[in-house]
Amino acid sequence: TQLLEQSPQFLSIQEGENLTVYCNSSSVFSSLQWYRQEPGEGPVLLVTVVTGGEVKKLKRLTFQFGDARKDSSLHITAAQPGDTGLYLCAVGGNSNYQLIWGAGTKLIIKP
Amino acid sequence: GAGVSQSPSNKVTEKGKDVELRCDPISGHTALYWYRQRLGQGLEFLIYFQGNSAPDKSGLPSDRFSAERTGESVSTLTIQRTQQEDSAVYLCASSTFEGLARNEQFFGPGTRLTVL
């Protein structure tokens, strides 16, 4: 069983549509990160959330950390082809330096 | 400034051969991570280096895998007697300040390893 469950695994939508992807767990975390990975590249950090209920916005992307700090969502408004990529969530592991990663949501935005 | 670089970008090898993958972290970053990413999956932690401390090797899948780092610079990941299940993208990341989990990790583009 994965510690972090990301859903959906795959999403393909038209440019201009809105979407939400999720990162869920039964465990409580002190912080959670979202990364985006484009083909042939390493992941790039988008945001870190640390407080239950926290909402952070990055242009058209809105990130929310659940009140109980067990889950998070990423909402994209008016998706664009440049948003295409693999969206990964990650949380702290057993050590203070190790991250545990979800399997990711592969997002394709069609022009 | 320069980011994390990895070489080679692609490596095709035959089963049973040894391979060596290289990572050049961002200058000044004391923490360095190696991960494995299989197709369609998330990142699997392999090993962590922090300054001159003993590395955390708890993620290495077998004794065929080893890694070294010279001070706070270049790291090499070696896979001996490669197997087909070793085929994956191997990613390196570096970070500042003891590599705390909540600190940003900066990734290289990865090495895509294919074992025939």
Verbal overview:
- The complex is a heterodimer of chains A (111) and B (116).
- Chain A has 111 residues and is mainly beta.
- Chain A has a single domain (5-110), classed as Sandwich (Immunoglobulin-like), CATH 2.60.40.
- Chain A contains no helices and 11 strands.
- In chain A, the strands form 2 sheets. In chain A, strands 2, 4, 5, 9, 10 and 11 form a 6-stranded mixed β-sheet that branches.
- Chain A is globular.
- The mean pLDDT of chain A is 92.
- Chain B has a single domain, classed as Immunoglobulins (Immunoglobulin-like), CATH 2.60.40.10.
- Chain B has no helices and 10 strands.
- With 116 residues, chain B is an all-beta fold.
- The mean pLDDT of chain B is 91.
- Chain B has strands spanning 5-7, 10-13, 19-24, 31-37, 43-50, 65-69, 75-79, 88-95, 106-107, 111-115.
- The N and C termini of chain B lie far apart (37 Å).
- In chain B, the strands form 2 sheets. In chain B, strands 2, 4, 5, 8, 9 and 10 form a 6-stranded mixed β-sheet that branches.
- Chains A and B meet through strand 5, strand 9 and strand 10 of A and strand 5 of B.
* Rounded average pLDDT of chain A: 92
Give the number of domains of chain B.
1
Report the CATH C-level class of chain B: Mainly Beta
Percent of sequence in beta strands of chain A: over 45%
**Number of strand elements of chain B:** 10
CATH superfamily of chain B: Immunoglobulins
Count of DSSP H/I helices of chain B: 0
Helicity level of chain B: under 10%
Helix/strand/pairing category of chain A: mainly beta
Q: Could you tell me how far the N terminus lies from the C terminus of chain A, measured between alpha carbons in angstroms?
A: 36 Å
Instruction: Give the SSE order of chain B as H and E letters.
Output: EEEEEEEEEE
Described by strand count, sense and barrel closure, the largest sheet of chain B is: 6 strands, mixed
The CATH topology of chain A: Immunoglobulin-like
